[in-house]
Amino acid sequence: MTIRLLFCFARSASLCRPNFQKFKFRNICSQVQVQEEVAKLLELKSQINETGNQKFTLKTPKGTRDFSPHQMAVRSSVLNKIISVFKKHGAETIDTPVFELKEVLTGKYGEDSKLIYDLKDQGGEILSLRYDLTVPFARYLAMNKISNIKRYHIAKVYRRDNPSIARGRYREFYQCDFDIAGLYDPMIPDAECIRIVYEILNTLDLKPFVIKINHRSLLDGMLETCGVPADKFRSICSAIDKLDKSPWQDVKKEMIEEKDLTEEIADKIGQYVQLNGGRQLVDELLQNQNLIKSKSAVEGLESVKLLLDYCELFGTLDAVSFDLSLARGLDYYTGIIYEAVLMGKDTSDSDISVGSVAGGGRYDNLVGMFDSKNKNVPCVGVSIGVERIFAVLEGKLVASNKKIRTTEVEVFVATAQKNLVNERMKLCKELWDNNFKVEYSYKKSPKLLVQLQHCEEYDIPLAVILGESEIQRGVVKLREVSTRAEVEISRSELADEIRKRLQGIQLNGTS
User: Fold this and answer.
1) Cβ(337)–Cβ(217) under 8 Å?
2) 174 marked as part of a ligand binding site
3) How many Cβ atoms from other residues are within 10 Å of residue 507's Cβ?
4) Is 133 annotated as a binding residue?
């Protein structure tokens, strides 16, 4: 009996084995099918992504930003004021490509060259986004054989830097440059550049500020006197240039540990770079027995002394400070250098100092780098840091709760009844022909209250109101939006009356 049971069990097991293997085979087939379907779905997903239907986080690239109409209104106002100062000093404007051949930019910025944005090879041309407007200007002068020009240039530049939005430091930003190219007597064009910075900062009401000045020849002579090897002058200048952001001990540590200076030489440098003042400091340094051994240092001091005399004539001396810590790390500077610094804090955040808002200097050898015969064109210029200025002014406006007009509309044409869109359009045409800035509602039958509320919301100074009665009598109602006072005016006299009222509004400072 037992033997029979075992035989039956073995037989049943042998009969079940093919079913088990069949199940296993089906299971494997189903897994393969699943993997194939998953692969198809992944491929479909990638195709969807390529067509632009992918869901992703919308944002601007790091170090860039969009600008709202209110921000653009501030920017336009600032740029217009800066341009008016440039034009007052006889400048004309140019433009250059947003990218240059990489070899044009290479070797012009010292340690900052690592911040240049390189582009992909395009047909054998190795290109880079422009780092500033000065090197492209020098290339422009050399290429076009120009030896005399006074120009301004306002355009975007690009730096692969660590952005700081709060301090107005971006990777894409505007520069406003003013430069004088040509062979002139010493320090006369340089003094005018300082005067231009002085005028711009006063025009924008960014007081108090100080314009620091120094001279590259003086810096070289000072480093020579202190025992710095000539091949390290530029790298040490880059370290000194950090004194506006870092304490002397940090800069000294960098000189010793990274620039391989001895502590004794670093201490000698520290005795000079912590000095600042005016004419008296120049006279004291001209009596310094160690410093006057350097011909370069003496030339620099004499140039600074002459520049201070011209600054007094131009009325800028009250804001100028001779500061030996000013180095400006760019390699192309050859003479006087200067930098404007806002004193105090950014009003949008009392704990953040805005710092430098303009800088520049003399660069007499830069054009020669692009000329086949090494023909130099002496140049001096200044760059206005408009992004930092925008940050300060936007902060002031937020703090003051002042309303900013984002349009320049002078007159709004409104109607009091329905179905008068044709009459509105006729009147708009008349006013546009008279060069007024005019707006109207795009609805056929807008409510009068909605139209008048639009005028108040956007600070439009005047509204012209049409109704059936006014059309029949050839008159309009002219409304002063701020006071809501209305007066009836003949259509034939409307243009003259609008001009008179707009002039009065501007003179009273309410527009």
Assistant:
1) no
2) no
3) 9
4) yes
Q: Report the run of H or E that residue 83 belongs to, with start and end.
A: helix 69-88
Q: Which tokens sit at 133? A: 């407007």
Residue reference for tokens 């060069």: 435
Q: What gap in Å lies between CA 221 and CA 295, rounded to an integer?
A: 7
Exposed/middle/buried for 108, CB within 10 Å: 0-12, 13-18, 19+?
buried
Low-confidence winner among 52-56, 118-122, 319-323, 342-346 (lowest mean pLDDT): 52-56
Q: How many CB atoms lie within 10 A of CB 105?
A: 23
**What is the DSSP code (8-state) at residue 128?**
E
Residues 114 and 159: their CA atoms lie apart, in Å, by 9
**Is 332 marked as binding a ligand?**
yes
**Residue whose C-alpha is closest to residue 357's, from 246, 214, 180, 208:** 208
Is residue 70 within 8 A of residue 404, CB to CB? The reply is yes
What would you measure as the largest C-alpha separation in the chain, in angstroms?
A: 131
Q: pLDDT tens for residues 409-438?
A: 999 999 999 999 999 999 999 999 999 999
167 a known binding residue? no
- Identity at 223, one-letter amino acid code: L
Q: Which residue shows structure tokens 């206005």?
A: 384
Place of tokens 């800088």: 359
pLDDT at 394: 84
pTM assigned to the model: 0.80
Residue 309 structure tokens: 């005399």
Nearest Cα neighbor of 71 from 165, 193, 176 is 165
159 is in an annotated binding site: yes
Q: Is 205 known as a binding-site position?
A: no
Token readout for 211 is: 């314009």
Closest among 334, 327, 127 to 223, alpha carbons compared: 327
Cis-peptide into 208, omega within 30 deg? yes
C-alpha dist (Å) from residue 478 to 83, 169, 408, 475: 36, 47, 18, 10
Lowest mean pLDDT among 211-225, 234-248, 350-364, 489-503: 350-364
Rg (CA), the chain: 35
Question: Is residue 134 part of an annotated ligand binding site?
Answer: yes
- Are 440 and 464 within 8 A, CB to CB? no
CB burial class (10 A; 0-12, 13-18, 19+) of residue 356? middle
- Concatenated DSSP letters of 457-502: HTT--EEEEE-HHHHHHTEEEEEETTTTEEEEEEGGGHHHHHHHHH
- 476: which residues sit within 8 A by CB, 6+ positions away? 427, 464, 465, 466, 470, 488, 489, 491, 494
* Strands 462-466, 411-415: pairing kind: parallel
- The Cα–Cα gap between 211 and 321 comes to 6
Annotated binding-site residue? 109: no
Dig out the tokens for 399 from the structure: 């703090």
What does DSSP assign to residue 372? T
